[in-house]
Write a structure and sequence with these properties.
Layout (H helix, E strand, L loop, with lengths): L1 E5 L3 H12 L1 H8 L4 E6 L3 E4 L6 H11 L5 E2 L5 H6 L4 E4 L11 H10 L3 E4 L2 H17 L4 E2 L10 H8 L5 E7 L2 H13 L3 H10 L8 H4 L2 H15 L9 E2 L7 H9 L2 E10 L2 E10 L10 E8 L4 E7 L3 H21 L3
Parallel strand pairs: 1-2, 1-5, 5-6, 6-7, 9-11
Antiparallel strand pairs: 2-3, 3-4, 8-10, 8-12, 10-11, 12-13
The structure holds NADP nicotinamide-adenine-dinucleotide phosphate.
């Protein structure tokens, strides 16, 4: 399989390294290597049909700030359309007001008959229908396990292993930063602002934390899950959203008196598509601490199925992308390609 990596930041570099680390698995299971034949970031690109060395790409990026040796002139759309490769790994930044540049890159790849594996929430949370239609029309795969919860494999689990189940509802914690802040407020009696500052100092929250604390990130993920698992046709804008800015120490203490904790919960059922702070009994799986993500599915045969995992991180997110690459290779193998 020949892949091109779009975006070469934390996740792009992580998946390049993981592809390097798993060549034995690719050879043993599928009798072929996965070759990185191109990579680009916001300023530069590099390509070689013989394959590029992942370690060299990462070290050039770290040394020069550029993954490539050539400057980008007019974006990479033409390269994606015309260059000979099988799968685009799309890891450009999420933008929830405008799904670019990821949307254009992904559409160009799908319409040129190439699979897309993406970690980018923006295009999926705003244009899921268009992307899925393009994939179906061109008989290629659009896969996005990494876009929701890094290494919490809820999408592939639901769509593949739980394929025979009726899934009635989903509840979960989809943002580790909010969970960390709410937990610190409870454990240490900290006011919101102080818990947020602590999260920022530890690198858990961004300098502009609004995506996390206003529930935007969780709402994007919930929209993706609603489309992927429940077959809905929704965007980020359909999610009813309340963040955690207005949670006070008093509210946390009051919940504590009732042996409950406050968590930012995303919920999907036939009446609800909502992210909001909710009270959860202490000891309940959703009362999870730290920065972990968790999802509970309610199914007809298996009952309650719970998945927990790290929501972010270079290798954790690369692990989800790897699972999508392996799924495509397995599918090709089954079809004798
Ligand atoms: N980090 C995580 O743990 C995690 C987990 C799950 C999902 N995600 C999602 O995965 C995506 C990547 O995250 P990240 O943490 O790797 O972000 P990042 O470190 O900011 O990297 C983004 C990369 O995209 C490149 N880029 C920006 N604009 C571009 C353009 N117009 N054309 C081509 N490349 C462009 C950047 O180029 P420069 O290097 O030149 O600036 C950078 O290499 C995001 O959508 C994020 O939401 C991340």
């Amino acid at each position: 399989m020949k892949v091109v990596i779009a975006g070469f930041g934390t996740v792009g570099q992580g998946i390049a390294e993981v592809i390097g680390m798993r060549q034995e698995l690719f050879a043993k299971s599928f009798g072929q290597p996965v070759r990185i034949v191109g990579a680009f970031d916001s300023k530069s690109f590099v390509k070689s049909s013989k394959g590029l060395d992942p370690a060299e790409l990462v070290s050039r990026k770290n040394a020069t700030g550029k993954v490539g040796t050539k400057d980008i002139d007019n974006g990479m759309r033409e390269l994606i359309e015309e260059y000979d490769f099988d799968t685009l790994i799309e890891t450009t930044p999420t933008n929830i007001l405008d799904p670019e540049p990821g949307y254009t890159y992904s559409m160009a790849a799908l319409n040129a008959g190439k699979n897309v594996v993406t970690s980018n929430k923006g295009p999926l949370a705003l244009r899921f229908r268009e992307l899925s239609k393009a994939a179906a029309k061109n008989k290629v795969q659009l896969r996005y396990e990494a876009s929701v919860g890094g290494a919490m494999p809820v999408i592939n689990l639901s769509r593949e292993l739980l394929r025979g189940e009726k899934i009635f509802s989903l509840r979960g914690i989809l943002n580790g930063t909010c969970n960390f802040i709410l937990n610190r407020m409870k454990d240490e009696g900290l006011p919101f602002e102080q818990a947020l500052r602590e999260a920022q100092e530890m690198g858990i929250a961004e300098r502009d934390p609004s995506y996390d604390i206003d529930g935007v990130d969780s709402a994007c993920k919930l929209a993706i899950l609603a489309n992927a698992i429940f077959g809905m046709d929704v965007t980020y804008n359909d999610v009813v959203r309340t963040g955690i800015r207005s949670i006070t120490e008093d509210a946390i203490a009051l919940a504590g008196e009732q042996k409950k904790v406050i968590r930012l919960i995303g919920e999907i059922n036939k009446d609800r598509l909502e992210v909001s702070p909710r009270m959860v009994p202490s000891g309940h799986p959703l009362a999870i601490g730290g920065t972990l993500n968790i999802v509970q599915l309610l199914t007809d045969l298996a009952g309650e199925v719970t998945v927990v995992g790290r929501g972010a991180g270079r290798m954790e997110t690369a692990s989800a992308i790897l699972s999508d690459i392996l799924a495509i290779l397995s599918d090709n193998q089954a079809k004798g390609r």
